[in-house]
Design brief:
This protein has helices spanning about 5-20, 30, 60-65, 75-85, 95-105, 120-140, 160-165, 170, 200-215, 240-250, 305-310, 335-345, 350-370, 400-415, 440-460; strands at about 40-45, 45-50, 55, 115-120, 145-150, 180-185, 220-225, 255-260, 285, 300-305, 375-380, 385-390, 415, 420, 430-435. With about 450 residues, it is α/β, with parallel strands linked by helices. It folds into two domains: about 5-65 and about 350-460, Aspartate Aminotransferase, domain 1; about 75-345, Aspartate Aminotransferase, domain 2, CATH 3.40.640.10. The structure holds 4'-deoxy-4'-aminopyridoxal-5'-phosphate.
Length: about 450
């Protein structure tokens, strides 16, 4: 680690952090007595904490974000150069990186046509929800306003995103929720619903969505919002036949398909966007984390020309435009970083690396499953993998959450940061999650799974 802080500096930072920072997603009372961790520096796949300890990051910054790895000087330089030239201008004026990144992004998304900039995954999803509601008002007298979301999916932290969230533990205590969001069942084959009686689970699971549409009334349903591969809800890869049927259903009932690529987007699954694995044609796509790998805050809502046209078809109506703004959607650092991030993925062939390393990780996880009966199911696409832990393979009863967290803690002690589903679906916080940067090498992957091997041995015996 370069330029290590001295003892005094470090204790000052630790004290300031403890005294003043309200951290995300933790219980602060127990946190007060745990060893604090301040991450000081990162390079490639690794970060260093305030004690100089090295950590191999298998979760790309904790929440599957830093797709091109840490310490990318060319991104920092692109952002610096842009900020010196022009940091910000909002509203209807364009910017050089905003225009150029849109062009480059759409080049990776055949069939899509317009890019709307904002700051976070939640915000991008909110904007998509607003578009659906406005289209309902403009075209259907307000009737086709309902938005379907899936059990175990997550779409963000605002009240409307929580209303579209299928993770009860995240949602609890934040009601009342926004009306008009309706849940459809999940598609996790390993935990197929009890009324599934056999046949193709993918088609069956998609047909459950159709049942909800018919129950609600197709003329009331405006959109279906899904993650291509469910992330925090348990790394749920879709079963065979699922997406084909989902697409057919949306078409049949004139329902907009909104795909949340906040995690899968920009290479994570070995193709640019997760939906492209399944031949799906979305109407709206939202993305955030990997767009600029965390070097700047940026999120995008991308739509087809058909959706865009719906907002400009009658210029004589003064209300007929998307009446929305995002103050920091005018920041130029985001698209400047995103442009360079995408160039790196292309020039370093990181999609190919993701496919190769994803295969290696899946192979290693399957090998671990041979050795550790606690692994009930292994799932993944590209460098986005999960291992679901169970108390018994026969009953598939989920492993004790505390033990799952103990595995994460043991890996951390070994200098490998992995994740686990947490505070999502009650009883099912039992999936270990792996989403290393797309630059991972075979040695990195092996180091990650070796650490898990040892941790499972120690925690589960
Ligand atoms: N969608 C998905 C699938 C996510 O995983 C997340 C964040 N974990 C979000 C949306 C929300 O993104 P943000 O935290 O940037 O608001």
């Amino acid at each position: 680690m370069d330029g290590a802080l001295n003892e005094n500096d470090i204790s000052h930072v630790v004290e300031a952090d403890r005294a003043h920072v309200w951290h995300h997603l933790i219980q602060h009372k127990p946190f007060e007595t745990t060893d604090p961790r301040i991450i000081i520096e990162g390079k490639g796949m690794r970060v260093w904490d305030q004690k100089g300890k090295e950590h191999l990051d298998a979760v790309s910054g904790g929440v599957w974000t830093v797709n091109v790895g840490y310490g990318r000087e060319s991104i920092a330089k692109a952002v610096y150069d842009q900020l010196i030239k022009l940091n910000y201008f909002a509203g209807s004026a364009g910017s050089i990186p905003g225009a150029l990144f849109s062009e480059k992004l759409l080049d990776k998304m055949p069939g899509m046509s317009r890019v709307y900039y904002c700051n976070s995954g939640s915000e991008a999803n909110e904007k998509a929800f607003k578009m659906v509601r406005q289209i309902a008002h403009k075209r259907y007298g307000g009737k086709k306003h309902k938005i379907l979301y899936r059990h175990r999916d997550y779409h963000g932290t605002t009240i409307s995103c929580l209303s579209a969230g299928g993770q009860e533990e995240r949602n609890a205590q934040y009601g009342p929720y926004t009306p008009g969001f309706i849940e459809v069942p999940h598609c996790l084959e390993y935990r197929a619903q009890p009324d599934f009686t056999g046949g193709n689970y993918g088609e069956w699971a998609a047909n459950q969505i159709e049942e909800v549409i018919l129950r609600e009334g197709p003329d009331t349903v405006g959109a279906l919002c899904l993650e291509p591969v469910t992330a925090g809800g348990g790394v749920i890869t879709p079963p065979e036949g699922y997406w084909e049927r989902v697409q057919e259903i949306c078409k049949k009932y004139d329902i907009l398909l909104h795909i949340d690529e906040v995690v899968c987007g920009v290479g994570r699954t070995g193709v640019w966007f997760g939906y492209q694995n399944y031949g799906v044609k979305p109407d709206m796509v939202t993305m955030a984390k990997g767009v600029a790998s965390g070097y700047a805050a940026i999120a995008c809502l991308v739509t087809t020309e058909e959706v865009f046209e719906m907002f400009k078809d009658d210029a004589s109506d003064p209300m007929n435009y998307f009446r929305d703004i995002s103050t920091f959607g005018g920041c130029t650092a985001g698209p400047a970083a995103a442009l360079e991030n995408m160039r790196i993925i292309e020039d370093e062939n990181l999609l190919d690396n993701t496919l190769a390393m994803g295969e290696r990780m899946m192979g290693n996880l399957h090998a671990l499953a041979e050795k550790h009966a606690v692994i009930g199911d292994v799932r993944g696409k590209g460098l986005f993998c999960g291992a679901e832990l169970v108390a018994s393979r026969d009953t598939r009863e989920p492993a004790d959450e505390k033990k799952v967290q103990a595995v994460v803690g043991d890996c951390m002690a070994q200098g490998v940061v992995i994740g686990a589903t947490n505070r999502s679906v009650p009883g099912y916080n039992n999936t270990l999650c792996f989403s290393p940067a797309l630059i991972a090498t075979a040695d990195d992957i092996d180091q990650i799974t070796d650490a898990v091997d040892q941790a499972l041995g120690r925690v589960f015996g």
